[in-house]
Amino acid sequence: CYRENILKTAKALVEDTKLLVSGAASSQDKLAQAAQSSANTITQLAEVVKLGAASLGSDDPETQVVLINAIKDVAKALSDLIGATKGAASKPADDPSMYQLKGAAKVMVTNVTSLLKTVKAVEDEATRGTRALEATIEYIKQELTVFQSSEVPEKTSSPEESIRMTKGITMATAKAVAAGNSCRQEDVIATANLSRKAVADMLTACKQASYHPDVSEEIRERALRFGTECTLGYLELLEHVLLV
């Protein structure tokens, strides 16, 4: 029942995505209508996903987290898409903002597809862990793309905060190795959820610290390079766990 509702609402959201993209080249009224329609649809989708997560029962909180994370990714992608649509409105086809819009639309569709795969996997206990790991790998890759962009963070933090956040990576690494050894679905799901947060927190703290006023250009470049290398190394670890 929940799966059918989620599928139907997700399809409607994909249609809204198409309208948003085409709306950038049309009138402000059509663009506003598309944005409002997508906002309504994502609200409905979030509700049916939450109901689906609740139906799993409290015995499996990690899988509930996987579902909630999947809808959060879709909501974030939609927010980015609406922002990109506003930036591209009334611009010529070869304007850089149009390429950003296409990129945002692609991420949006990727995340909707990922949500549907996750919903399907939830019904099959044998594939839950694998799917959770795949979704986390995709999420980390998207976070790394944001990290590597030239966008300056809204706020800065101290180098100490960045160092503190690396401890989460150490814990998640130990959890990933243990999950690779046990191959238990619940361990893999827990690893996926922990890895997702640990890497995202590390990337955020690293970028904020690298833009601290006391940090030189040279140190900033090194910090950003090491943040990227750490993430790529962790992705390789998760790929190995997935293979196992």
From TrEMBL:
One of its GO terms (molecular function) is actin filament binding. Residues 8-119, 129-241 form the Talin IBS2B domain. Pfam families: Talin_IBS2B. Keywords: Cytoplasm. Its main location: cytoplasm. The keyword Cytoplasm applies. The lineage of its organism: Eukaryota, Metazoa, Chordata, Craniata, Vertebrata. Gene3D superfamilies: Talin, central domain. It comes from the Eukaryota. One of its GO terms (cellular component) is cytoplasm. This is TLN2 protein. Transmembrane segments: none annotated. It is found in: Cytoplasm. It comes from Malurus elegans. The keyword Cytoplasm applies. GO terms for biological process: actin cytoskeleton organization; cell-cell adhesion.
